[in-house]
Amino acid sequence: MPYVEYDEVGAACADCGRQFPSAEALEAHRADSHAGAELPARPKGPLRCSVCSRTFRSLGALAEHSRRDHSG
Q1: What is the number of domains present in the chain?
Q2: Which among 1, 17, 41, 46 could disulfide-bond with 59, CB atoms 3.0 to 4.6 Å apart, if both were Cys?
Q3: Sign, Cα dihedral of 13, 18, 24, 28
Q4: Whole-model pTM above 0.70?
Q5: Which residues of 9-25 are buried (b: 16+ CB within 10 A; e: fewer)?
Q6: Measured between alpha carbons, how far is 40 from 62 in angstroms, rounded to an integer?
Q7: Mind listing the pLDDT tens digit of every residue in the chain (72 residues)?
Q8: Full domain range(s) for residue 29
Q9: What H or E segment, with its residue span, contains residue 66?
């Protein structure tokens, strides 16, 4: 999938945090990448950034924070 600008993101995968421009693209991703796959259970409670220790309620929010604030 090509790089998606922050303001183009319409949906984030709750399983892996990848972001997509539309719900349709998210559904295609889930069908291709997560259909029948055993994924680790989502940890209970807030998700913590391993770099700055900020907490987030979703994997998508954590992934966006990491891309925006910690990528080179």
Answers
A1: 1
A2: 17
A3: negative
A4: no
A5: eebbbeeebbbbeeeeb
A6: 17
A7: 445 444 455 788 887 888 888 888 888 888 888 776 665 566 667 888 889 999 888 777 888 888 889 887
A8: 6-70
A9: helix 59-70
